[in-house]
Amino acid sequence: MKKALILAAGLGTRLRAVVNDRPKALVEVAGVTMLERVVNHLKQYGVDDITINVHHLAQQVVDFVASRNNFGVTIHFSDERDLLLETGGAIVAARQWLDGDEPFIVHNADILTDLDFEDMAREHLDSGAVATILVKHRPTQRYFLFDRQRRLQGWVNKSTGETRPAGLVYTGTEYDEMAFGGIYILSPEIFPALEEYAKKSPVFSITPFYVDHCRTLPIHAYCPPRDYLWLDVGKPDTLTLANEIYAAK
Questions:
Q1: Are 5 and 90 in contact (CB under 8 A)?
Q2: Sign of the Cα pseudo-torsion (36, 42, 48, 53, in order)
Q3: % helix, strand, coil for the chain, step of 5
Q4: What is the CATH code for 3-248?
Q5: Sign of the dihedral defined by the CA atoms of residues 160, 165, 166, 167, in that order
Q6: pLDDT by residue (tens digit) across 33-87?
Q7: Is the overall model pTM greater than 0.90, yes or no?
Q8: Angle CA(197)–CA(203)–CA(204) in degrees, nearest 5?
Q9: In terms of DSSP bridges, do strands 74-79 and 163-164 run parallel, antiparallel, or are they unpaired?
Q10: CA distances, 235 to each of 160, 201, 241 (Å)
Q11: Domain boundaries along the sequence of the chain
């Protein structure tokens, strides 16, 4: 894989005290911005064409990337300053840079990991999925539901009992409950369904899209075979933890 989309447009509300004067992607972890850490990790696996969506304090991201000479790769900016499109809408808006004949990675800017993208890409291709989602067993309120073949079958909110898609019957034992890891691989064949979904509203999250299409599109789980570092650095406590871990490195 050569292409990736880094989702860096979020408002960073969970880090409000830290992001008053900067976008979340430019928050530093042990002296290096989250954005640069994500880019450097992608580069290790041959990604050299990266799209970054921007919204909150967007010009700071543009200027920062320029100051780093585009990190030595091709950089595109998907400008959402006029309208924050959320994760699904962001992918549709960036299609011109992501489309082609091979899968691409979508990576939240506030997820730091040492995930093996080569293994994830191999599993994506071998399974024939149009979307392969990084998931893990961890406590949360909202879970994707997968069958024994690791194909997505639905979604549940444990605090409210809500399930999707419509008509899903779930007693709590039929499927494997997995938490979303903020990273996924998509094949370009998914774009027609995404663009059709966007006709209802250009602003939409990728999660309901996955759930509403799981009966017609092969959407699979990826559970890494080995232990790996994974941190959601969008929260103050995990930002503190991330600083400790990366400083120790």
A1: yes
A2: negative
A3: 35, 25, 40
A4: 3.90.550.10
A5: negative
A6: 999 999 999 999 999 999 999 998 999 999 999 999 999 999 999 999 999 999 9
A7: yes
A8: 60
A9: unpaired
A10: 23, 29, 10
A11: 3-248
Q: Angle, nearest 10°, between helix axes 86-93 and 191-198?
A: 120
Place of tokens 């002296």: 31
- 19-35 average pLDDT score: 90
Residues 6+ apart with CB under 8 A from 229: 112, 113, 114, 245
Contact at 8 Å (CB) between 106 and 130?
A: no
Cβ proximity of 172 and 224 under 8 Å: no
Q: How far apart are CA 46 and CA 159, in angstroms?
A: 41
CB–CB of 111/181 below 8 Å? yes
